[in-house]
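In the current project phase, our protein records have gained a structure token line. A sample record follows, to show the layout:
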Amino acid sequence: MSKKIKIKVVQRHSTAFIEWIKNTVMNSTIIHIDAHSDFYGVPKKKSKEFDSFIEKDSIYMTAEGDYDIGSYLSIVIETGIASKIVWVRQDFDPSNEKLEEIMYESFMSNGEGVWEFNWKGFNNENKIATAIINGVIWDFCSFENIKWNIYESIVIDIDADYFMFYRKNMRNELIRDILKRCNEHVSDKYDFIILSISFEGGFISYDFKQHIMDLFKECNSSYDIQLVTEPQIHPELNMEFRKRYNCALYLLRSGECTESNYEFLSLLNQYNWIPGVHYNIALTYRILNNYHESERFYKSALTVNPNLYMAINDLGTLYLNAGRLMKALDLYEKEIDKYDMYSDINYNMGMAYYMLRDLEKALDKFTVATNLQQINYKYSYMKAITLKELNQTKEANKILRDILNLPIQNKFRKLVNDSIE
């Protein structure tokens, strides 16, 4: 008999994070159905808004004695606790030429200097746009195109403004569809689901929560459904943590890696359950050319959150740069089923095969990487070079000439020119 899957129903979607941490659930996928990102970039360290932002956007105790948090997706991104966030926006338009700019502005308007936004482009087959923000995968799509690549647990976060902006009176139909898809894709390996509802737009909270629970029971009677009324949390994940953690990030982004390394190491004893602490220690050691310590902390980050994408990708890159090609391939081969639509890993696998002189496999991976992110000239260049070595000169030269028609740096332009026969 299959085990019962725990489902927690909470009122405020910010409270979902608190209940989630209380149950020490890592590796989660967040399905964020909202008209807004609920992600607010941290102001610059020296700005007068910094302290007030951290204060209002940290975990705090309400007048009623409950814990709450301002922008829970901001702290998720900082800490690497989630593995993937899927932001569902019904106005998502993949044909919009300014899609990258729109998504960037949704996250980075206040966050220059601390957040890293790495745009991965639009996947035409899946109708999903992807970015990596501080190491965490963000997919953007309409509800019809959610790709359910779920890890160990699920947070389904529904804000009522989604219905106000997009779905109007189709609330029940959408929620039934969500539950149906959830029921189809969860299995015995998924332990935990949080359904969080924000009651803006005139919903009556008790009635709506009961309604949600009834819909869950209708979907699957074996679910263990619990109504959460008094969330608790690790009391130490507070304003002081946010300040120290963000200051360490600022030092890292400013190139002060030794100081950043020291600050992150000072957080390790108390916050060793946070993947981002381990990851950023590994990153600073890598920049400081301490290979062994960098490898050790990438591995410890993956012990805390085995699905932290950038730790996987960075560790593989570390192996590649050290010439440990089979070690890199072993790591990537274990993860490629989860990350087959991300160009970095495919490109790095291509480089490993290329250096091992397995040119057919290298070409296959470079082709996948190029198809996933056509704006990356490096991927196209390596595809062309591999084609040349496979004596497919005509196709290689065509790719190289196409690159020359693009706005590229002079140094790279000379490299491409010299490669054309």
